Amino acid sequence: MGMAIMYSPFFLIGHTIATYTDYPTDGYSYPYSVCLKIGTCCYMILALLLLYSVLSHYFNKLASFITIGVLFLGTNLFYYTLGEGEMSHAYIFFLFTLVIWATIKWYTVSRLRYLILISLASGMAVLIRPTSVLILLFPLLININSIDSLKHRLELFNAKKIQLLYGGIIFIIPFFIQMIFWKVQTGQWLVWSYKDEQFYFSNAHVYDFLIGFRKGWFIYTPIMLIACIGLFLMKGQLKRLRLSITLIVILSVYILSSWWCWWFGGSLGSRSMIDYYSLLSIPLGALIWSLLRFKIVFYSLLTVFVGLIGYNLMIQKKYPNGLHWDAMTKESFFISIQYINNMPDDVQAKYEKALDHPNYDKARNGR
Q: Does residue 298 surpass a pLDDT of 90?
């Protein structure tokens, strides 16, 4: 019920408007739709402000501002905020950003309210999507880059064990609410709602997940490849973040590519990785910040970023009519990108012939 909880403030506003107007109070009429879209934008604005605060902690204002702009305009986060913003990705992006911001605050001033935010935001993210539990590795591993730093972390946790106990209780509250709902509706405390859907960890489609033309993360969101390269440019205090970010990204790619439907159905690019973009904004910012000192190199990279933003906006314009939601191949991809607007009929026929529709029944059985 995670998304229902996140929707609820704006849903109630829409319901109030529908109640006092002629629109049906059915949860689907125009006021509900508009209010949910506004809600997505509100969460995203808050997420970007928090992310700017995080980046400003490590970089100057210019580098932080450019990083925010590149991240939003140059990735499918843009589409899943303004296009299909009612899906979970913008919401988990907000919750992950809140975890990152509150984690840095907690390790700086060690106040309980920041630990509460970490626990509540991560608990809500897990309630939306169970694999979001990976975000907990950030507060656990941040600033650890040696045996001594690990020993210091264990000492800190021991000293703050009462705070951590409170945090653990708050973390499980959202899931406990879900369990109560299951008990009321089904008579069972735990319900596996995915039925016959599962992970196949011995058959992970990592290659296809990253660079395959059906949904390849780096094919449809190449700026994220640059962000991953930025992991190697994290120096000074940023080196203390490298372990947590790298481990979370590697595990997320492996786990998500092990899901039976590793392309995640109809989507623009690898939508399942959007949740982790706030983490990857840090190495992206490290790269931008490093190159700002070399004007010629930076302007060259800025030109590349502008091109990639244009590429991203182009494929979002083409989706889904000129860029199929789940059947893209190398041939159909290169046919598609040659035409910014509608393809001629003969080219459209060639494009459709090149599509490769996935077999969902076989995939569900791990084949």
A: no
In a domain, 11, yes or no: no
Crossing angle for the helix pair 239-258 and 277-291, to the nearest 10 degrees = 140
Taking the C-alpha atoms of residue 244 and residue 229, their distance in angstroms, rounded to an integer, is: 15
**Does any domain span residue 193?**
yes
What is the distance of C-alpha 251 from the center of its chain?
A: 14
Q: What angle do CA 178, 181, 183 make, to 5 degrees?
A: 110
**Are the C-beta atoms of residues 99 and 140 closer than 8 Å to each other?**
no
SS (H, E, C) the chain: CHHHHHHHHHHHHHHHHHHCCCCCCCCCCHHHHHHHHHHHHHHHHHHHHHHHHHHHHHCCHHHHHHHHHHHHHCCCCCHHHHCCCCCCHHHHHHHHHHHHHHHHHHHHHCCHHHHHHHHHHHHHHHHHCHHHHHHHHHHHHCCCCCHHHHHHHHHHHHHCHHHHHHHHHHHHHHHHHHHHHHHHHHCCCCCCCCCCCCECHHHCCHHHHHHCCCCCHHHHCCHHHHHHHHHHHCCHHHHHHHHHHHHHHHHHHHHHHHECCCCCCCCCCCHHHHHHHHHHHHHHHHHHHHHCCCHHHHHHHHHHHHHHHHHHHHHHHHCCCCCCCCCCCHHHHHHHCCCCCCCCHHHHHHHHHHCCCCCHHHHHCCC
Mean pLDDT of the chain: 93
Q: How many domains is the chain built from? A: 1
Q: Is residue 183 part of a domain?
A: yes
Model confidence at 296: pLDDT above 80? no
Q: How many residues does this entry show for the chain?
A: 367
* Residue-number span of the structural domain to which 306 is assigned: 60-319
Q: Do 53 and 101 form a contact (C-beta atoms < 8 A)?
A: yes
pLDDT of residue 45: 97
* Tens digit of each residue's pLDDT (9 = 90 or more) over 232-268: 888 888 988 999 999 999 999 999 999 999 999 999 9
Is 350 a domain residue?
A: no
Phi-psi region of 275 (alpha: psi -120 to 50; beta: other; left: phi over 0): alpha
